[in-house]
User: Fold this.
Amino acid sequence: MSALQIENTDRYLKTTLDKETFDEAQIMDLLDYLCTENSVKKAQFDDSILELSKSIKKSWWSKHKDTLLK
Assistant:
């Protein structure tokens, strides 16, 4: 068996992961990310949200870069 198997059915993608290869915390982080992405997709934001995101990231980086780059 490989570390990752995906079965594609009519309705589902069934995923099987080898416990010796994947850490549970990694998988939970990935699933949280996928759920967030799905929620954003359903929200149907327009492109202006991307500009807001860039602005927030730029502001955050400006405030924190000195601490992070020590």
